[in-house]
Each structure stands twice: as C-alpha cells, then as structure tokens.
Amino acid sequence: MSKDDEIARLKAEIARLKTEKFSLEESHKLVVKQNERLEQEKAKLEQEKAVLEKQIKRPKMTPEALMASLRDAVVAMEAGLESEKTRVKYTLGVFDADLKTAVYIDDQGKPFMQMPFLGETVPSENLSTLKFSINTIPQPRVPLVTVPNVVGRMKDSAIEAVETVGLKASITEKLSSSPKGMVIGQDPEAYAEVAPETVVVLSVAKPQTVKVPNLIGMERDVAIKILESTGLMPGNVDEQISDAESGIVISQNPRPNATVDIGSAVDLIISTKGIAVPNVVWKTEKEARTLITESNLSVGTVSYVCSLFHDITLAQNPAPGERVLPQTPVDLKVGRLITLEEMKELLASFPEARRLGITAEIVFRTIDTFQISTVQRLEEFIELSDKTVQERLELKNLKMAKGLKALLKRIVEKLEKT
Asked: Measured between alpha carbons, how far is 86 from 84 in angstroms, rounded to an integer?
C-alpha cells in the first residue's frame, strides 16, 4: 500500500473516532440529567416518607386523657399561686384552651386526637381547632380554725391546746436559753385562720449545756455569783456543822465539771460552827422557852410528865452544849405536879411506905412544908436531921422521918424514868 493510501485510511479512522466521541459525550449528558431527575424524585420521596412517619408517630390522645392532662396543668398552676407566708389565697378562675389537632374516628367509632410535635409544620387542612373553657365550681366553705397562741407554754400544755381546737401538733427542738420544753415559736402564727387538722409546728426550747464550776472552798455569796455568771442558779442552800470556816462551800450537787443544761440548779452545803444548845434543865418552862429562842433555836415538842416538880424542865434534847444549826428544834420534858390519886398508886409500889405509915397526904404536906420544887431543894431536905423533919411534920417517930427522906428520893428517881 502506498503512503497516500495509508494517510487516507488514517484520516477516515480519525473521523470515525471523533464521531463516536461526540456520541458518547451526548450519551453521558443524558445520563447525568437522568441521575439529577432521579435524585430529585428521591428527595421528594424522602420528604413524603418523613411526613408519613411523623404522622404515624404523632401522639394520639383520647378525650379523657386530654382532660386529665389539662387537669394536671391546672393543679400545677394552682400550686404556683399558693403562698405559705400570706393570709390571702389565689385560685384559677377561667382556663381557656385553644388546641389545634387532627381529629379521627377509630374502627369502634371512638374519637381520638393526634397532637403535632412541638415545632412540627402540619398543613392547616390536616388540623382542626378545639376551643373550650374550664371554670371553677365553688365548693361548700369549710369553717376555718383560729390557731391558738401557745408561745410560752410548756410542750404538753401547748399540744393539748392545739389538738383541742381540731389541729395537729408537730414538735421541733431548738437550742435556747428558755426553760427546757417551753414553746418559743409556732408556725402558723397565733390567731391565723387555717383549715381543720392543719399541722402546727411548735418550736420547743432545747437548753444549751454548760459545765458546773468548782465552788468548794468559796464563800457562799461568791459561789452564787459564779453560778449565775455561768447561766446556772443556786438550788437548795443548806448549812452543815463543820470544822471549816463558817460560810464556806463544803459540798455541791451536781459535782464540779458535770455537764448540765443552762438554767439548772446547783445545791450547796455551807459550813457553820453551829449554835451551842443552852442548858434549860431545872428551868421553868417559860425560862426554858426564852433561853432557846434567844439562842436562835426553836422550841420543839413539849411533853408533860408526872413529877414532884411542877412547871420545871426535867430533860431536853439535844443535850446542853451540843452544837446544832440555827432554828434547830429543842424538845422539852416538863414536870406536871403528880395528883393525889397518882401519888397513892405510886406509893403502892413501895412496900416500905405502908410499913412506915407514909401516905400520899404526908408526902404532899412534906413538899408543901419544905418547898421541894427542885432537886436542889430535895437534896436540902434530905440533909435535914431526922428530928427536924419529925418535929416540923409532927411525925410519930424518927424512923418515920428517916424513911420519908429516903422514900422521896426513890419517888423522884422512879418518876424520872417514866
């Protein structure tokens, strides 16, 4: 083949390839346009699918459930209107609802609603508008109760006062310097008007605690001032005979460093030398009483016993010289002149009286003649000679006089033992 023929063949081949290239490019453009159309159709279908899914998933609600939700909303709004700090109450008067929803009828003929999601765009032709109002219906007024004022009362008394008017009591403790158990606050406040069975919270004092100071060895007044400065108070302050200096604290209760409530009482024992009991034996009752009261003591029990010594103190308790506290009672035993009948009965217990012929009359005559009113006078009588006694009493003989002196001494001794 010649060169010219080869060149012609190549040119024809090039022309054919250009034609195929053009045809392929046109086919590519057509495919691209078809792909774009398909993508548009796909996007449209995706949008339709999303709308259908939202419609399927959209909340469905029966009329009963809708009203229950609205009721809960009203209750929540009512709660927001309440205030515990004022005496004024607020309530929801009218609640207007304007809802857009899709209304359907199911297979059983029961209506239900499909609610749009928040922010969802739904064609207006697919929605219905529901309008209704919720109004309050007045209920019979419940009589209110006036809260009693119980601040300052003790806990039990306050609870009783609260419960008596038909309320309930709740207790809470607070640290306070007020007495333990005293009501120091209340909520609701006194005289507020509340519904029956409302709980009244009572704040009850819970005393703070403090350690008891050591007062032993201090003077009485100093100890009391220290107690008061620490929030305590003196309890029973008693005196006790002691060798310690007078007026000094020798004992305390509670003990030092014990932990007690503020306001608690501390008992103190104060030392004292005491008062020496005067000797009132053989004093008249009047003299004995005077001596006792002048010694800052008191007259205790006075008992009267048969005696030859009328109106004479025969015994005392405490004994003379014993040291006691001020105003300690001193008991007395005072003689009451024995009667004639008592003397006769007493002489019957002494055989020698009958043997010597000594009668009750002779004994009384002897007491009167020799003025035997004390032991000293009796001793003086016994020291007299038998002859003197015989002569003055006109006795029959000296033996009778001697026996009379001995008998009087024994009578006194026996009466002292009774």
From this structure: 6
Residue 87: its pLDDT value, please?
A: 56
CA–CA dist 200, 154 (Å, integer): 15
CA 240 to chain CA mean position, Å: 34
Quick one: DSSP state of residue 126?
Answer: G
Contacts of 318 (CB under 8 A, 6+ apart): 277, 324, 328, 330
Structural domain ending residue among the three candidates 80, 108, 135: 135
Asked if the structure places residue 232 within a domain, the reply is: yes
Domain coverage including residue 302 = 276-337
The phi, psi pair for 50, rounded to 5°, reads -65, -40
pLDDT value at position 16? 82
pTM over 0.85: no
Q: How many domains does the chain have?
A: 5
400 contact partners, CB below 8 Å, separation of at least 6: 356, 357, 358, 390
The pLDDT tens digits for 256-286 are 999 998 888 999 999 998 899 999 998 999 9
